[in-house]
Amino acid sequence: MNQYKLVIVVETKEHVYIRIFVNDILINPEGLIRLKQSELDQLFRDLFKGSRGNCIRMRCVHF
Questions:
Q1: Is pLDDT at 49 greater than 60 in this prediction?
Q2: Domain count, the chain
Q3: 43 phi and psi, to 5 degrees?
Q4: Which residues have CB under 8 Å from 17's CB, separation 6+?
Q5: d(Cα 10, Cα 17) in Å, to the nearest integer?
Q6: Which range marks the domain in which residue 25 is found?
């Protein structure tokens, strides 16, 4: 079963910029992914359900 980590690197009023790790491997090395907060919430819910709870969301303190 895959483990997902959604790491919020930058957060603005309208968007969040994230990195995604699957099994501790960065899957978007070309840059950050920009999403609206509602899109991030939906992505997290979908991954959480699909992975049976193996999905966490965290904030990056240093980048």
A1: yes
A2: 1
A3: -60, -45
A4: 8, 9, 10, 11, 32, 33, 34
A5: 5
A6: 4-59
How many H helices and E strands in the chain? 1, 5
Which 8-state DSSP code applies to residue 26? Answer: E
- For residues 26, 30, 32 and 35, what is the CA-based torsion angle, rounded to 10 degrees? -100
Q: Which two tokens stand for residue 2?
A: 């895959």
pTM surpassing 0.85? yes
d(CA 55, CA 4): 4
Read off the CATH number of the domain in which 39 is found.
3.30.420
- Nearest Cα neighbor of 8 from 42, 40, 49, 47 is 40
Q: What pLDDT is stored for residue 62 in this prediction?
A: 73
- Is pLDDT above 60 for 57? yes
